[in-house]
Amino acid sequence: MSADTNARPAASATPPAGIEAATPSPRTSGPLTTSIRAPRERRRRSTPRLLVTALVLTLVAIGATFLLDPYRNYQFALIAATFCATAGLTLLIGLTGQLSLGHAALMAAGGYGYALTANALTDAGVDGVPRFVVSLAAAAAASALLGLLLGLAAARLKGPYLSGVTLVLVIALPAFTSVFSGVFRGDQGVQIAYDGVPEVLRRIIAVEQWQAWVAILVAAVFVTWLAALRNGRAGLRMRAVRDDETAARLQGVRAGRVKVLAFTASSVTAGAGGAVLCFVTQSVSPGAYTLAFSLLLLVAVVIGGLGSLLGAFLGSIVIVMLPWLIQTATGALDLSADAAQRLTGNLPVLVFGVLLIVVTAAWPGGIRATLPKRLFSKRMPRAAAAPAAGPDAAVAADSDLEPRTDSAAEPIPTTTER
Amino acid sequence: MNHTPSDAEQTSTAASAAPSVPEPRLRVDGLTVRFGGLTALDDVSFEVGRGEVVALIGPNGAGKTTVFNAISGLVRRAAGDMRIDGAPAPARPTGLVGRRVARTLQGLGLFDSMSVLENVLVPLEARSGAGGRGRRGDAAEQASGCLGRLGIAHLAAVPVAALPYPERKRVALARALVTDPDLLLLDEPAGGLGEEDIDTLAEVVREVAASGCSVLLVEHHVDFVMGVADRIVVLDFGRVIACGTPDEVRADPRVEEAYLGIEPAA
Amino acid sequence: MDRLLFLLATGLARGAIFALFALALVLIWRAARVVNFAQGAMAVVAVYVAFAVTGLTGSYWIGLASALVAGGLMGLVVERGVMRFASHASPLSGVIIAIGVVMVLQSALGIAFGSNTRPMEAPFSESPIVIGGVPVLSPYDLFVLILAVGLMGVLALLFTRTSLGLQLRASAFAPEVSRLLGVRVTRMVTAGWVLASAVGALAALLLVPTELGLNPHSADMLFVSAFTVAVVGGLDSPPGALIGGLAVGVLISLVTGYLGATVAPIAVLVLLVAVLLVRPGGLFATTEARTA
């Protein structure tokens, strides 16, 4: 299929690709001049376009909080926090093929970083926005450090070895908090001071809405950063390494560094998510970051579609809402307390496990692939100068990631089909 | 102070007075590569001068791609020396671009999830801080210019996975040329191409060589090689069995014997 | 000091169990080029079956036999029913599907039996035999050692001396060529899974009585330890699994004995990372495994 960009000159009646290429004409100037312009414009435009999209989406999200009741806002906050982690994870797996089963541990690093810093600042008399920002920064730093170490080890490892190491890490987490219980307080975890709604807004919004706002803002910042990373040079290098590592190295791409960068970046956002969770629940403990949770993160990115930020968001919604739905449903049934508990605890996991298997085996693109064609109509928008409508831009920018990013993708990627 | 210089002194003075010969672009000296018990390359030596086109030919399994892999740092050598512009060849594949060496792969090694333009951009954007902010626009320009030179500028936004084989080969070639290399290693560039495409390819190779870039190519297509190469190195079972101009090699009985693809009366 | 001997002996017994489980992982890796992350969960299902059977019949030995059968069946079901849908193009899909299997199995067990831990009785005493004032080894540990080593010996014989073993090895090493020679490769892969799962089930069965008890997550730590063993020993090396298992078993036993049980997972993690940093392919790996 040939691209239909407005860079192609209408006048030259360009025949389909195959025929033109057969006639040697290495020095046509027509297509040359216009093609020069398109990519440069695309480059210059994509960062501002990304920022505008992010801003619009954030405002929409904040607006939505006015329409939700407090419990829903609480869930919204959870979704936003989870999104920070799943966004990083989906890019990590989708763009560099590093399957991390331990991202919950990275979130925990962020959570503990946030909690410990916040407590220290509270003791020093700092509170409010400065305390939040500094603690968030500390959280990001903590998870970045852990992610860097893990990433350095992981870059040398292939497939199952990497997954295994991350698995062991998350299983070992409770051991860490117990052994260093002086700092981490073992199983009971660390509590932080309650961060109420600031004076200014106290009469307008309730605390759950405020927490949702904070969560949304943090997610907006970190996910936009990830999107910028992906759209730029780093993303190009990651895709090159994913598609053909040897060829990439021959082009000068340092594969190891690219993988470590991806791991570290995803760790930073996971840490931010952990910090937000701590902010919302006022506590952090090993029980909140179990292997099961790590696997839920994996479920979210797989069913959303590996490599897709929108998919990560949709997946985050699913893993937060589905357990709640099941709990409500089983509550409506007339069951003994024991049976009810067995169901609510296990049924979501059962459903997720089935989803994971089915999606990976039979439905490689995840939810993302079933979204309306309209979103993908701007074929290869990153090379086209044609602007995509607002919210679609970020989504459309995803589109070229789609077919190769899933683990079950065909060997011959079908970028042409959506 | 009168003394007639001895013969030895005379020669040495003459030698030091002679203008220095520029280093060959590529010098391979005694290259030996072993895979386990198998000796893939045995004492292979040859040179490629500046702006020269040298072809490596030989039957399947002779070790031609192994030579490339050794130069690219993808396989370890058991013995021998490889120098590019006088300095040792990079130990790792990632060092090639910095030494202005570019290589194509037999399997093309294109990045299937990307468009044509993006594929060609990769070597330009491979290193962080490779040029700073301003260069990003330049990189795109450089890449587009290269696509234009190969007649595929109109395909810039097309995903490479959607392209037919000859176009994919052009993209691979463009990707190799975009960094403006001084040494180009082409692995079976004519394979799978029709006559017209091969003619274009020969034209591109000659142009590239004329601009000062040296070309070392591995190839099976004998007519193409005869038409484009300045010198030919013939490998068989990992050893160099002949080296010379196309005419010399064509007439060499050892080559005929080892490589029946050459028509004796040419 | 007298503790040392006991800890070493127990470590060897534990290590034999890890080695068995690691062997199961190695078997599947060699047969199907996939690390079976679901091995633990599959084994636990078999142990629940054994538990139920023992409860009904009152005999440990019938329970053990049923664990072997159930384990084998699990291998058959998972391989034929689920794993064969994993894409060969990407190793990730196999891991992800296996994770899905883990979630399904563990949650199903939780729904059916509940998550509370049920104590499981060992067929032999677990208090150590004392020789000359020094605790040496418990009868149960001795039993475990004998059974585990014996089984490994049987497996070794199977693989090296029998026609079935030869076919299994051929299918794993060179499936295309084996097909041409008449080996039913798909069947061999399934056979490998069945065998591996039975072995894994036995390992889990031997382990559970020494832990707090049986619950759906009983085998998580076993999988982690066995995975570490397989990495230390090299995913495609059975002798490596044996040596690695014994080494890891002793390590964990010593760490638990001197530093406490909570530290054990950290010790495993440290060992794993240390080995992989130095030798990404495992200590005993051949070059083949390096491309895992």
TrEMBL record, chain A:
Q: Does this entry carry the keyword Zinc?
A: no
Question: Which GO MF terms does the UniProt record name?
Answer: branched-chain amino acid transmembrane transporter activity
Which parts of the chain span the membrane according to its record?
Answer: 50-68, 74-94, 101-121, 133-154, 161-184, 210-229, 260-282, 288-310, 317-337, 349-371
**Could you confirm whether the keyword Membrane appears in this record?**
yes
| Feature: compositional bias, Low complexity | 384-398
> Taking the first listed entry, what is the main subcellular location of this protein, grouped into a coarse class?
membrane
Which superkingdom? Bacteria
Q: Annotated region Disordered: where? A: 1-44, 384-418
Keywords annotated in UniProt: Cell membrane, Membrane, Transmembrane, Transmembrane helix
Record membrane topology: Multi-pass membrane protein
The organism of origin for this protein: Agromyces terreus
Where in or outside the cell? Cell membrane
Q: What is this protein called?
A: Branched-chain amino acid transport system permease protein
Task: Cite the source lineage.
Answer: Bacteria, Bacillati, Actinomycetota, Actinomycetes, Micrococcales
Q: Which Pfam families match?
A: BPD_transp_2
Q: Which GO terms describe its cellular component?
A: plasma membrane
TrEMBL record, chain B:
Q: Which PANTHER family match?
A: AMINO ACID ABC TRANSPORTER ATP-BINDING PROTEIN, CONSERVED COMPONENT OF ABC TRANSPORTER FOR NATURAL AMINO ACIDS-RELATED
Output one GO BP term: L-alanine transport
Species source reads Agromyces terreus
Question: What protein is this chain from?
Answer: Branched-chain amino acid transport system ATP-binding protein
Show the ranges annotated as biased composition (Polar residues): 1-10
SUPFAM superfamilies the UniProt entry points to = P-loop containing nucleoside triphosphate hydrolases
Tell me the ranges covered by the ABC transporter domain, including all copies.
26-262
Sequence intervals crossing the membrane: none
TrEMBL record, chain C:
Q: Which UniProt keywords apply?
A: Amino-acid transport, Cell membrane, Membrane, Transmembrane, Transmembrane helix, Transport
- GO CC annotation: what is one? plasma membrane
Query: Which Pfam family is an annotated match for this chain, by its short name?
Result: BPD_transp_2
Q: Name one GO biological process term.
A: amino acid transport
Task: Reply yes or no: does the keyword Protein transport apply.
Answer: no
Q: Which domain of life is it from?
A: Bacteria
Q: How does it sit in the membrane?
A: Multi-pass membrane protein
* Keyword Glycoprotein on entry: no
Any idea what this protein is called? Branched-chain amino acid transport system permease protein
User: What is the source species?
Assistant: Agromyces terreus
Report the transmembrane regions from the record.
Answer: 6-27, 34-53, 59-78, 90-113, 142-159, 188-208, 266-286
Q: Hey, which family's this protein in?
A: Belongs to the binding-protein-dependent transport system permease family. LivHM subfamily.
Entry's localization field: Cell membrane
Q: Name one GO molecular function term.
A: transmembrane transporter activity
